[in-house]
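Give me the fold.
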Amino acid sequence: MSKNEGDDALDANRILAFMYDPFLNAIAERFPGCSLADMACNNGYFPLGASLRGMGPCTGIDRVNYVESIALLNGVIGTRIEFIVSIR
């Protein structure tokens, strides 16, 4: 990955965080310890964020297979997100 691609990825993540983190904070505050399922989750931003905020089991579902990406994140940051590839 080039420096420009890395910078673009960081910028994209900052935009996601700005848009979605207040919403995730409110969900985790209102439903502490509850589970979260996100359909059409793409690469799992919501399940990851919910897990990091102490919510219970978090599951992402998408048609695109992000199993390896989610497994990498689980290993690196210690989350236990389940990812399900939906059947077309």
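The chain has a mean pLDDT of 91.
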